[in-house]
Structure formats: C-alpha cells, structure tokens
Amino acid sequence: MSDQARVTLCIASCEFSKLCMSPIVIVFVMLMIILSLTNAAGCSVVLPRFSFMSHDEAFFFVGLGNFLWNFSSLFSFLSVCITIVSFSDEKKGAFRVLLTKPVYRRNVIGGKLFGILSFLFLMMAFTVSIFVSLIMVVYGGPGSLSELFLRSGSFVLLLFLNCSFSVGLSTFFCILLGKAEAMMASIAFIALEYLARTPWVPSFLGDLEIINPVSLYLSAFSCGINQNLYSTSIPYLSWASHALPYVVLMVAEVVVITLINCTIFNKEEL
C-alpha cells in the first residue's frame, strides 16, 4: 500500500471515529430510537386491522413501507449536516497537525468521503435493523427470513446510494463555498429534488427528469402503482431486474460527483 493510500485510510478512520461521537449523530440516534418505538407501537395497533392482507403483505407493504419517506428525508438531512461539519475542519487545515507526511487535498477529500460513507452505511443498517426488529416483536415476522433480509437489505442499499450523492454534492459545495452557504445550497438542492417529484410542481427537466437522484431512487424502489420493493406479490428477482438499470445510474452519479470532488484541486499540499 502506498503512502498516499495509508494517509487516505488514516483520515477515513479518524473521520469515522469522530462521527461516532458527534453531537449531531447522538441526537439523530436518539430521534431514530424514539421514532422506532413510536412506529412499533403504531404497528401493534394498525397492522392487525389489515385483515384483508396476508400477514407477510401487511408486514412488508404497510409495516416496513410506511417509513420510506421518513428515512429518506431524515438521512438526507443527516448526510448534509455531517458532511458540512466534517469539511469545515479541512477548511481550517486541521490535518496539518494530525499527520506528519505531506497531505494533499484530494487525500483529505477521498479519506473524509470514505469515512462518512462507511459511517452512513452502518448507521442505516443499524437503524433499519432496529425498526424491523421492533415490528417483528409486536406483530410477528414474515414467513421467510431470507425474503426479509433481501428486501430490507435492498432498501438500505438504495437509501445509501441516494444519500451518497447528497454527501458528494455537499462536499462539492463545501469546496467552493463557505460553511453557511454550502448548507443552504445543499438543503435547497435536496428540497428541489423531492419537490420535483410532487404532482403540483412541474419539472423543468422534462425527459431528463431521470437524472434527478431522487427520481432514480424512487423509480428503483417502485415498479408500478402500489407495487414496489415491499410488495410480496412481486417476486424479489422481478423487482431486482426492474431496479438494476436505475441502481447502475445511481452508482454512476455517485462516481461522477466523487471524481469531480477529488480532481477539482490539483495536488496542493495542506
């Protein structure tokens, strides 16, 4: 492993450790625990009323499907906040005193992105696991655990890719703007992404609406009216074949924004 790769991994490790103790993250975890308990209490009352559905259909489509928007918006906001707070250290040159080897800005950007994305993925997996586990406690689990792992795991993947673009975009704004301006620009962009999906706000992109990251995210999740990842009437492989092209485009957008961030500066030492 080269010295530059070691420096990047060191920065990623420091970033991951710092995020674990971040006040923003601690408040977010407390909020998600409260929401998971509230959601479980609601499911214990509401899900038995869906007697016209099978147990598994009510568990997936209603129990798990009802927090799609909450998860999407909350994790998008968390992604923006921790990215902007994280890159404020880079603006201050904090890594000059942490590392003795020459540190290039692209190492800092790459390391911070890797640390943030690793943390977000584990946070999403942990949070979804809590929500699912509590629903299983109050309502009972589905007949197939493999189906549960596949569908909930796929949701985590889609959410992660959507938030990865938010992280990349916030990083881009942090590089070009100040902390406050980057926060406002990032939140405004994400708000426009979601508003563009509402029927009362016409999209100015027309046929290019497909490049909207939120459109890709929701198009991958849903494959028709009342048919999505959590619809047990649709075999998982059928959903996966529908979602694959959108997932590829989501990955491509994340790669593009990451490459832009890592190459926007030359090898300038901090």
TrEMBL record:
<protein>
    <recommendedName>
        <fullName>ABC-type transport system, permease component</fullName>
    </recommendedName>
</protein>
<feature type="transmembrane region" description="Helical">
    <location>
        <begin position="67"/>
        <end position="88"/>
    </location>
</feature>
<feature type="transmembrane region" description="Helical">
    <location>
        <begin position="243"/>
        <end position="265"/>
    </location>
</feature>
<feature type="transmembrane region" description="Helical">
    <location>
        <begin position="182"/>
        <end position="200"/>
    </location>
</feature>
<dbReference type="GO" id="GO:0140359">
    <property type="term" value="F:ABC-type transporter activity"/>
</dbReference>
<feature type="transmembrane region" description="Helical">
    <location>
        <begin position="24"/>
        <end position="47"/>
    </location>
</feature>
<keyword id="KW-0472">Membrane</keyword>
<dbReference type="GO" id="GO:0005886">
    <property type="term" value="C:plasma membrane"/>
</dbReference>
<dbReference type="Pfam" id="PF12679">
    <property type="entry name" value="ABC2_membrane_2"/>
</dbReference>
<feature type="transmembrane region" description="Helical">
    <location>
        <begin position="109"/>
        <end position="135"/>
    </location>
</feature>
<feature type="transmembrane region" description="Helical">
    <location>
        <begin position="155"/>
        <end position="175"/>
    </location>
</feature>
<keyword id="KW-1133">Transmembrane helix</keyword>
<keyword id="KW-0812">Transmembrane</keyword>
